[in-house]
Structures are given as C-alpha cells and as structure tokens.
Amino acid sequence: MDTDALTAGLLQGLRAVKPYPALSLTMPTHRRAPDNAQDAVRLRNLVAEAVGRLEADPAVTREARTALKEQLDRAVTEVDPRRALDALVLLVTADEHQIWQLPRTVPARVVLSDSYLTRNLVAAKAQAQPFWALTVSADRAVLWSGTADALREEPGGGFPLTAPQEPSDPQREERVGDTPSTFSDEETRNFLRTVDEKLRAVLAEDPRPLYLVGLAPALALLDEVGESAKPAVGRVTKGVPADMSPSELLKELRPALDERQQRFAAEIDGRLDEARGRRAFAGGLDEVWAAVREGRAGLVAVEEHFQQTVRVTDGHLEPVTGETVDLTDGTVREDIVDELVEAALDSGADVVFLPDGSLAEHGRIAAALRY
C-alpha cells in the first residue's frame, strides 16, 4: 500500500493491541538500478533475523510461529520491486500481512510487539503531503489522490461520477431555436450539485488540499451550486480528455503545486517568526522533542530529509554520528525524527516538511509553541 491509503481509521486499526507477536519489519529500499540489487539480499537477511527471533522467543507458541512464518513468506513473495520507493514496511501477524512502500527512508529493523510499529508510516504520509485533485466537466467528475511525485485515480466516495444521458428533445429545440447551453442546463446543474455533495463527504473524511481542473464555466458552475470546491488551493482552467494519463495530469498540475508550495513555505516562515517574537519558539532536535513530549508544540517544521540517530540520556537527546551503535540498547533511537513526528501529530500539532536547508540555522527542525 501507498502512504495515501493511511486513513485515520486504518491507523487506529494498526495501533490496536493484537495477539503477541505482531511483527514489524522495516528496511530502506532503492528506486532504481543498480542500487536496488541489494534490496533483495537485505530483505532475506531481515526475514532470517525475524524467523530466528520467533524461534528463540519462549512467549511465541509453535502454532503462532508457524502461522506467522507463513504470512511472512506470503508478504515477501508479494513484494513488487518495480514499485519500490525509499522504504519497505511489512506488518505481519498470524492472521494477516500488509506491505507498505514509503517515499521516506527508514532504518532496517525487526520489531516483535503486541501492536504494529506505525511511526514510519505516519511520518512518510506527513512528508508526502497528499492532496486531492478533482477533474470536472459538464458530464463527468473524477477524483484523484496525489503527492508531489505520484497521482492515481481514487475510485471511492461515489467517484467517478458521470451525468445521466438525457435523450434529445427536438420539440424543445424547435421552440427555443437552438440546443440549450450546456452550463445553463438544469441537468448539468443537478449533476454538479451531486459532485459537490460527494466531494464534501470525501473532504470531511480525509481533509487534504484540493486542486480543481476543468474549463472555466464548469468550475464556475461548481462554485455556484455548492460550497465544497470554493476553498480549493489551486485551479487549472483546462479541459481534461477522458484518456489523460495520471502522469500527464500531474504535469498539468505542477505549476499550481509549485505555487502553492511557495506560498505554504512563506506562511510557515511567518508563523515561526511570530513564535520567536512572542518567545514561544523551539529550535533543534532536543528542544523540539521536549516541547512535543510536554504537548506544547502547536506547529513542528522539519526539513524533508532530516533523520538522526540519537541516544536518550537524562531526558535529553544526544546525536549519534560516526559510530556503530547497539540497536538493542534501549537508549538508542534510530528513527527519532519519525517518532517525534508521530507524537506531534498525536498531540494535535501541525507537522510540515520544508525543503532541505530551510531550517539550517535552527538545527533542521523547529516548532512554534502553544505556550
């Protein structure tokens, strides 16, 4: 699965307590050759480690071990290297397995617990900044789920929608003298009202920035008959052929995406400046971590590729660099940034990712505090 599939409901299910053991296997992967040749070897090694841990754990019954190993084997068989991004996460119990391909790297690890490890999924989705795109015309509306580098049609929430085909009315045309204008036709208005209702439900369940693509009269009429499209962060006034590919549509959206990203970065910079002015600012990993743990962070800004291994000492984080660390040491946190992102989101903070270098003077991570 991709990160945009991680809804609040699914995340709640992943975090639910499960019969021990719930296995989480994470590893970095590579998108292209020749680097991706090493991924299969690394996966085999991690699977061997997982099997060894299962066999050595006295809390795992023989039946549970057998069932889990079967699910793990199925998961490995189903991994598609052609879809590889920057990380692979396998979540496995005796009853199920899930495969996640993430656009954010993760450390290689095997975790046995009574719930799945979710921090890497949560951080990857936050970094991906998913959005909705709606392509709309007088008789068809299609919903798309997108990130900065991928777009796919979203067949759900009542979409795609196609207007019912009304038979022509020669007598009406003779009375009026011409066929009615498409965008003044009541059937078109009713169709777009339905589009508005379906879109409102989608945004209520999974709020994301919305982009609209369509001819100007179609977008104007959608605004006129409903409310859900008005807060759209970007609009592309261009017709969309029915056979337009996701890659072609993403190319058409690119200028709007870039413009919104620039506005967004300026807005975040302003919020951080305002926080500094009222002495409610934290900069650097240790300060931000403390603020998040105390529930004081209202906004956390992180550079996109910032990751750091740390050692927790007396409640503070000490960066670990240039040394081999013992990952069985409970004080070592290899993916502390992902852990921090998950904790911040759980506390109700906004988490945003900015281009590398944006927060260099603040240690690559900063927060605006609630108090």
Layout of secondary structure:
Elements: H1 8-15, E1 22-28, H2 37-56, H3 62-78, E2 87-92, E3 97-102, E4 109-113, H4 119-128, E5 131-136, E6 140-147, E7 150-153, E8 161-162, H5 170-176, H6 186-205, E9 210-214, H7 216-225, E10 234-237, H8 246-277, E11 281-283, H9 285-293, E12 297-303, E13 310-313, E14 316-319, E15 332-333, H10 336-346, E16 350-354, E17 365-369
Summary keywords:
single chain; 371 residues; alpha+beta; 6-stranded mixed beta sheet; 4-stranded antiparallel beta sheet; 10 helices; 39% helix; globular
Could you give a quick summary of the protein structure above?
The chain has 371 residues and is of the alpha+beta class.
Description of the structure:
This protein is globular. Strands 5, 6, 7, 8, 9 and 10 form a 6-stranded mixed beta sheet that branches. It has a 4-stranded antiparallel beta sheet with strand order 3-2-1-4, sandwiched between helices. The protein has a 4-stranded mixed beta sheet with strand order 11-17-12-16, with helices on both faces. The protein has helices spanning 8-15, 37-56, 62-78, 119-128, 170-176, 186-205, 216-225, 246-277, 285-293, 336-346, and strands at residues 22-28, 87-92, 97-102, 109-113, 131-136, 140-147, 150-153, 161-162, 210-214, 234-237, 281-283, 297-303, 310-313, 316-319, 332-333, 350-354, 365-369. 39% of the residues lie in helices and 22% in strands. The chain has 10 helices and 17 strands. Residues 172-180 have low confidence and may be disordered. By secondary structure, it is of the alpha+beta class. α4 crosses α10.
